[in-house]
Amino acid sequence: MKSQRILADFFRKTWYIYLFSLIFHLISNLIHVYFPKLLGQFTDKLQLGELTRGMIVDYSLLLLLVGIGHVLFHGTALYLVMYVGRKFEYLVRGRLFRHFTQMSERFYSKNGVGKLLSYFMNDVTAVRESISMGFNSTANAIMLLVAAVTMMIVSGIPYYLIAVSVFPLLLIPLIVVYLGPIIRKRSLEVQEALGRMTETAEEQFGGIRVTKKFAVEDIMERRFGKTVERIRQNQLRLVRVSSFFQALIPFLGTIALITALAFGGYLTVTKHITLGNFVALTLYVRMLMNPLQQIGNVINTIQRSRASLERLNELLSQQSDIVEPENAKSIDLSAAGIRVENLSFAYGASSHQVLKNINLHIRPGKTLGIIGRTGSGKTTLMKLLLRTYDPPTGTIWYGNTDVREMSLESLRSQVAYVPQDGFLFSTTIRENIAFYQRDTEFENVESAARQAQIYNHIVDLPDRFETRLGERGLTLSGGQRQRTSLARGLIKNAPVMILDDSVSAVDAVTEKDIIDSIQKERRGKTTIIIAHRISAIKHADEIIVLDEGVIVQRGTHSELLQEQGFYAELHAIQEEGSQHATATSHS
Ligand SMILES: Nc1ncnc2c1ncn2[C@@H]1O[C@H](COP(=O)(O)OP(=O)(O)OP(=O)(O)O)[C@@H](O)[C@H]1O
């Protein structure tokens, strides 16, 4: 069955620890069940007037030994099981993380960060509880039950009295079979609602600045309130059935105790059993009550964790839709041209075609400029070149190799992609720039910062390149972030570089400096520049204009200016804008 896979792998690695824990549990319980027996013997001797001072000391020492032995072995068994529980968390979280890093962009666009976090936190913890504390309580209770019943028989308590006193406890499995699936189903609903809440919280905290600027805190609060309310309702549904279940188990224990008292008391008065056996019987039944109550909790926990285990296994069984062939090729991209042939693409079967019949050829070392209205498919084309989404076979070629035949490592290590909203990590500026290769020479970091026109700003900061960014550090402006992210791409000095609207947030003068330095540094290396401003791409060897997924114009800057069309119109508007800006600044 699917839901046993993570556990099967785990038990294969840790079975011997469980075995040791079981052995210690067995020893601790064998010692523990001597307690009522010794007290029973003590009572009988007391009643018959055979008890001497020496015997009182002996019995006290024996009981002390029983107590110490039980605590030592029980404690060790408990420690071992807690240890494997933490090991489980460690291993599964590592496995989940590796799995997440292999998943494609399509997976992340379907699953929000909050949902993924809830797998890490809630689900892993739920399973850990059941394989550590759950195992511990079950092993302890079963062994205690067997040891106690055996000891009662050995002590000469009649079978029928044991059977009647223990009978109510045999109803537990029946209740479990009936209520277990209901608890499991409701707990799956709770886990899913928790996942949705984490997702909503993550999104709302992420967008808190927008919320505040639009002063819509009330709306967001109501929306979040609804999510929390759904959790409350689901949890109440679960609590109703699980509290009933948890209360029923000790109640059965109480019935067992009452039966032992009533029936055992009657048999003692009628001299069928000794007073010592009566004391031992009631102590045994009392001794069994706590572990049985724990079994109730454990079964509850196990039912809940089965739901989490199913979610985890389901997640881990999902495969990335981007798969490398077995004999994936490594290609040297510095000598390979890029060809796009009759490429049409839609994100899903039901969505519209984002790219239609694209044909392109970028010779090695040349620069391609791409311009077009927003939503025209520019970024999508880049995602396909990087194979973050799969293009149809035979549509994208590096040299003579289909991108789908290439090893992803070879492809992505040789392409530097700089997106518009480059994410920066909460670490130093230096580490953000040297992200691709942390141990690179400091001079390279400085040089990349100079090329991206961010150097002067960084050296003005108190800790210069060691300044921390992010949550507890400095926050950069949009343009500064963009240039830091650009430096991160430039330092890679990759054979192919893609700038996806990467200078959109900088002023026109800085943009010119950046483009000049890119032109100089990337001479002889393939570069693709996507921009909304003509000034950023006019030096390109070829420029294409995309409109609704179709290449509607192509040529050099001067060729395109000769044609009637989007490019010339845009040029006129942007020229007019910049002349107006210059005139205003002079006046
Ligand atoms: N992950 C996705 N799933 C489904 N549709 C998508 C996805 N990403 C983009 N699209 C759609 O594909 C179309 C092209 O988007 P794309 O991001 O490629 O445009 P773009 O030209 O880069 O736009 P911009 O200039 O605004 O960055 C849009 O209609 C967009 O809604």
From TrEMBL:
GO terms for cellular component: plasma membrane. It comes from Paenibacillus naphthalenovorans. Keywords: ATP-binding, Cell membrane, Membrane, Nucleotide-binding, Transmembrane, Transmembrane helix, Transport. It comes from the Bacteria. Its main location: membrane. This is ABC transporter. It is a multi-pass membrane protein. Coiled coil: none annotated. It is found in: Cell membrane. One of its GO terms (molecular function) is ATP hydrolysis activity. InterPro entries: AAA+_ATPase, ABC1_TM_dom, ABC1_TM_sf, ABC_transporter-like_ATP-bd, P-loop_NTPase, Type_1_exporter. It holds the Pfam family ABC_membrane. PROSITE patterns: ABC_TM1F (PS50929), ABC_TRANSPORTER_2 (PS50893).
